[in-house]
Amino acid sequence: MSAACDEQEVTLVLGNREAGATRLVKASLRACLARLAQGQPLWGDGSQPAHLKEFDLLGTAPRLRKEAPAAALCPAGHAVFSSAWLGGTGARTGLHYDYLDNRATLIRAAKRFFLVRPGVVERIGAMSSKYDRYARLAATDVQALSRLPLRQGDLLTVDLYAGDAIHVPQGWWHEVVNLQPSILLSGFHCPWWTLGPRWLHNAARHLVHRLSPVRPRNCTCHPHAPSPCALSHHPDPGPAPRSEGPAE
């Protein structure tokens, strides 16, 4: 895969930026791919697991489109936005939901999805004030939710292996962790007729955020120190069944 990509600098996310500090570092794309292929951390000694997130892999290496056509899994008549997630063992996201439906395919290794039914986080008042352009974040995590008296089907665990795909509908909360050095290709999609209003709303929100006089920004796109609601360190997720229920 590294041979299909031009040499370029990319921005890696260190740690869990949705739940804690937003830490960003620069790295070589080819070096990251080489380290991933060897099972090594993308950055440093791995004490802070690094992710290359929301990366346009198919735009960087167009010839990969034939091997991984993200649009093929999405409904006909939908606009599709493809993004890649690359990271070593232990790299994870915080609990969040996306503003678009997502059909994600695991290209390499193993990854675990924790899925939380819409309304669960809202019901306990655990919405985060941290800004993310493409998602809504939670001020809690799956470990905390698992200790609550949830209804059956409110919390699901699904493990993906190379070649597996999952559909995560808009509004479904999810937290994702790499069980091994992994590459995942997401196909975020929506009907074409809704694209214009969605794009305008997103662009307006992001412009307001960029022009905000408040410093430091509490967001996932600008580096800053941990917020007061930052979550504690997550231990190794340990083994789990391949699936405890459907993703939909």
TrEMBL record:
JmjC domain mapped to chain residues: 37-206
Coiled-coil intervals: none
Domain of life: Bacteria
Region feature Disordered, mapped onto this chain: 226-248
SUPFAM superfamilies per record: Clavaminate synthase-like (SSF51197)
Pfam families listed in its UniProt record: Cupin_8 (PF13621)
Species name: Caldimonas mangrovi
Protein name according to UniProt: Cupin-like domain-containing protein
